[in-house]
Design a protein that fits this description.
Helix content is 48%, strand content 22%. The protein has helices at residues 3-15, 18-25, 29-43, 59-86, 99-104, 106-116, 129-137, 173-178, 183-186, 200-211, 228-237, 246-254, 284-297; strands spanning 48-50, 55-57, 92-97, 121-126, 143-146, 155-163, 165-170, 191-195, 220-225, 241-245, 258-262, 270-277. It starts with a helix and ends with a helix. Strand 1 and strand 2 form a beta hairpin.
């Protein structure tokens, strides 16, 4: 048996559900079931009593649970002790993140992290991708999350999430008609509201337009804004159109306040990246944080 199997076992016992345990551990349900099946085979006992509505511990399962729970807690205590020693008493993780990962992905990551390591502390600073990379380079931040790759010395990037950029427009008849035509035919005639210089979204949007053969000099950029909520409100009011992350536009798309048009040739989308300074050893706390992110998004070390 191994700790991954025991962790899955304890989570199923606590939640009384294979599906809930899989969601909590960021695993697939078949993976959790396989962990439990391996334990039952190795121990030659039945650990759970299953029916159509719930899962409960068997008599043998109840015995194993007490020991498994202790082993999981002991693992976390060991991690905490050694991370504390390597961090010279400081447990605060300084995180820099660009807008999209900061607002739409980090909340879930940090919730998962604090559930597993409640003693850890962190500080999050939101800025554009260029400033995130600078913060990682000069070590004012331990780790960063960016929407694009900036070619900077000493920075190591690890993709962890696929994001898609879309053209967003007000949900009006004229725009609905435009959405049926190729973007190249009409986008240069529209007033475009862009994210600010240094934004990963802006950099990637410019790349996508160039890929379509659209010269940046021909684009009618009517405004540049840092706040994407302000951009969305401006689009809804009819000030212009914009190019934003699909994550950022999700709520307004679902409620019908805006419509979106995918950018052709974008493929699987752009990478959102974890970035850190490869010239410096990461603290134990940061390593634990990265471990949680890897588990959530299936990243191999």
């Amino acid at each position: 048996m191994n700790l991954k199997q025991l962790e899955a076992y304890v989570e199923v016992a606590d939640s009384q559900s294979f599906s809930k345990a899989a969601k909590k551990l960021f695993l697939t349900q078949p993976t959790v079931s396989a962990h439990i099946a391996s334990l039952e085979k190795e121990l030659n006992v039945r650990l759970f009593v299953r029916n159509t509505k719930e899962v409960s511990l068997s008599e043998n399962g109840d015995i194993l649970y007490k020991y498994a729970k202790q082993m999981i807690e002991l693992e976390r205590r060991i991690e905490g002790i050694f991370s504390q020693r390597t961090e010279e008493g400081s447990r605060c993780i300084n995180i820099a993140a660009s807008t999209i990962p900061s607002q739409y992905l980090l909340p879930e990551i940090l919730t998962r992290f604090t559930e597993r390591y409640p003693e850890e502390q962190f500080k999050v600073v939101e800025s554009d991708s260029a400033k995130v990379v600078e913060a990682v380079m000069n070590r004012s931040s331990d780790i960063g999350f960016t929407g694009t790759v900036m070619e900077k010395k000493h920075c190591q990037y690890t993709p962890f999430y696929k994001d898609e950029l879309v053209v967003i427009m007000p949900n009006k008849e004229r725009c609905r008609k435009l959405a049926t035509k190729p973007i190249e035919e009409w986008i240069i005639r529209e007033r475009l509201i862009m994210r600010e210089e240094g934004s990963g979204t802006r950099k990637e949007a410019e790349k996508q337009l160039k890929r379509l053969g659209i010269s940046l000099e021909d684009i009618n950029i009517t405004a540049s804004m840092e706040n994407q909520e302000a951009i969305k409100r401006s689009v809804i009011s009819g000030m212009g159109i914009s190019i934003l992350s699909k994550l950022a536009a999700k709520d307004e798309m679902e409620t019908g306040r805006i419509i979106s048009v995918p950018i052709p040739g974008q493929g699987a989308g752009r990478d959102l990246n974890i970035v850190y300074n490869k010239n410096y050893q990461l603290s134990g706390s940061v390593e634990k944080f990265l471990k949680v992110v890897r588990q959530m998004y299936g990243i191999k070390k």
